[in-house]
Amino acid sequence: MAWAALISALMLSASIGVTNAQEPVGMWPLNAQYGASDVTGNGNDGIATGTQLAPGPFGNADGSFLFSGTTSSYMDIPNNGRLDVRYAYTIMAHIYPTGSAGPLFHHVGNNNEWAMHFWQTGPEQMFLRPVRRDGNFEATPAVRGILEQNAWNYVGGTYDSSTGMASLWNNGELVGQRQLADPQQVATQYPIRVARRNGDSRIYSGRIACLQLYDYAMTEEQIIAAREKCKICAIDTVFMLDRSSSIPRTGFNLAKQYIWGFAQCFTDQEIGVGVIAYECVPRTGIKLGIFTASNSADMM
User: Fold this and answer.
1) pTM higher than 0.85 for the full model?
2) Residue 112 DSSP symbol
3) In this structure, are residues 22 and 89 in contact, taking their beta carbons and an 8 Å threshold?
4) What is the domain class of 26-228 according to CATH?
5) d(CA 84, CA 188)
């Protein structure tokens, strides 16, 4: 069998990238393709008000939402229960701040009371507060001199009630951490608002892209892996390789060389490449024996 026959390529439409991390419970790309939709399928589509499309963190022209920093520019996200990450969570987003302060991910408590929130609290400062379900809270991380104005920052906040550790992340690095003395479940049962809190003069100004929520506290490696979660590749290609015993090892080596060479042809654009191995020769998993007319009478 010729080595080229080992490979079949399936060209797929452009799609959201995937990572090895556990999938988010909510993800809002905030771009031209998906808008404020929750692409996880959990049904918590956002409603954006007073925003417009702007260049995104991956170089795409309409890859982010621009918030004007006024009371008429914000996004509301409902919570049907799938966003109630009471035990642990990770919030991540790409932000391009141009103002001094405002909410990035703010759970709106009853009567506008405080609940779990993740904010920009200064031109270069981030803040995370895992408010408990009874409304009480402890001092939590606030880090100055981290955010870069008029530039893309990949920011995140994590919390784990089993350890009490609350952490802040910027561009994949841990920048602030505090262990709560009395860790408890947090108030995440409420809807979310982005960029604005009613009655608060601090309103986020700038761009936001790829807002993500997970129901566990991610590790550094997982946070780095999810950085390009919303990146859209111009071409996604899947190679299907026959791994039957009839295929010699040299065939696989040639296939690897071909795939590498194929990817190198797209130096001027993004491409996602995947490999699926299959076997065209069936194997016997469980042998049940043979049923014939001669032994059917014995079974009656």
Assistant:
1) no
2) G
3) no
4) mainly beta
5) 5
